[in-house]
Design a protein that fits this description.
single chain; about 375 residues; Beta-Lactamase; OB fold (Dihydrolipoamide Acetyltransferase, E2P); five-stranded antiparallel beta sheet; 9 helices; 14 strands
Length: about 375
């Protein structure tokens, strides 16, 4: 149940994140695409009005009859209406001289389309976008707006670029809907893919955790057995010591098997012999060899660890590493440390960790099973 909730929350979080990012991104891309589209219309309209104004002006300079100029102008703009934008020519009174719709020639422009109010103005993108964006596009019908006015030199004619804002708004709306549809499909695919990937990675992670748990369980069982062997071996050592104390004459003639009975140490300026059964552990630090007894008292010795270990009974003492010799009686428990390493907890406590490397771990286990 918890896993299902986790996957559900993951799905909701990814979906919410994509909606926020997708909403911002789609708005930006719609605005960018609209800017490119409208700027194209603006630049095209501006170029057409200038070219037609130059063409008509050339004919006026050639002093052609006005009727011929009008007929030529009508031919030049006859096919300019693509349903969205077109070019027309009118005079200062607002009378249409040439228009793609031949039925409108000779008619006057309405008051709202009067060229006087829009002369010497040039519509920018932001103004054009706001104009198109507010148009109702249900029927793709909107006002025919004048984008540019270009006067014809040496005449009272004006070339105008018009745009059907209703159809432009419909184009923008279609563009916006396509972007939203595309982002929705992409979002659904990405969210679904992300959830599947999360589930797949989660299942792999769970499998790895299960394997680790199995390894840990086996290690715990192994450590429990190792500590059990330690207790048995300590009991065996205690029995052996008791037997040696009860029958000293049997071992007196064989000191090599028995090992040293005591070690000569120094406590400040005082010589202090320590019986081997009183030693908890021996270690070196900064080239100095220390002997710690079962009561926690620490003294030093001039002998090296190698010399001391060769003289001790290997049944009671173990060389844990280059720094430590441990008495079996001082070991309280064995715990796992690092990668296949063991850590010995001793009494009295050692400030330095006593680590048995993975290369010596099997040897240590065999020693406990003696």
């Amino acid at each position: 149940m918890r896993k299902d909730r986790l996957y559900l929350y993951t799905f909701l979080a990814i979906t919410l994140l994509f909606v926020i990012i997708g909403g911002i991104a789609s708005k930006y891309f719609v605005r960018l695409s609209a800017e490119q589209l409208l700027n194209t219309y603006l630049e095209t309209s501006k170029r057409e009005t200038k070219e037609i104004a130059v063409l008509v002006s050339t004919q006026f300079d050639a002093q052609l009859p006005k009727e011929n100029i009008q007929q030529n102008a009508q031919k030049s703009i006859q096919n300019t209406n693509d349903g969205i934008s077109f070019v027309s020519i009118f005079d200062w009174s607002g009378k249409r001289i040439a228009h793609p719709d031949i039925t409108l020639i000779g008619t006057k422009m309405s008051k709202g389309d009067s060229p006087v109010s829009t002369m010497n103005t040039e519509m920018g993108f932001n103004e054009f976008y706001a104009l198109v964006d507010k148009v109702d596009t249900k029927g793709n019908v909107g006002p025919i707006e004048i984008l540019f006015l270009n006067p014809v030199p040496n005449s009272d004619w004006i070339v105008a670029a018009h745009a059907n804002t209703g159809k432009l708004a419909a184009q923008l709306r279609t563009l916006r809907n396509r972007f939203y549809a595309m982002f929705s499909i992409m979002g659904f695919a990405m969210v679904l893919t992300s959830v599947i990937a999360v589930r797949f990675i989660g299942s792999l992670y769970e499998q790895r955790l299960e394997l680790k748990n199995e390894v840990l369980e086996s290690e715990v069982i192994g450590l429990a057995k190792l500590n059990k062997d330690l207790n048995k071996y300590q009991e065996k050592v205690n029995e052996s010591l008791s037997q040696q104390e009860a029958q000293p004459q049997e071992t007196a003639g064989n000191p090599k098997e028995q090992g040293k009975k005591r070690i000569l140490t120094y406590l400040r300026n005082e010589l202090l012999p320590i019986a081997t059964e009183e030693i908890a552990y021996i270690y070196t630090e900064n080239t100095i060899t220390y002997v710690v007894d079962v009561h926690g008292k620490r003294s030093t010795t001039n002998s090296s660890l190698d010399e001391l270990y060769n003289g001790l009974d290997s049944s009671f003492f173990y060389r844990a590493n280059r720094q430590f010799i441990i008495a079996i009686a001082a070991i309280e428990k064995i715990i796992r440390y690092g990668n296949n390493q063991l850590k010995l907890v001793v009494n009295p406590n050692s400030e330095i960790d006593i680590i048995i490397g993975k290369n010596k771990a099997s040897e240590f286990k065999q020693w406990l099973n003696l």
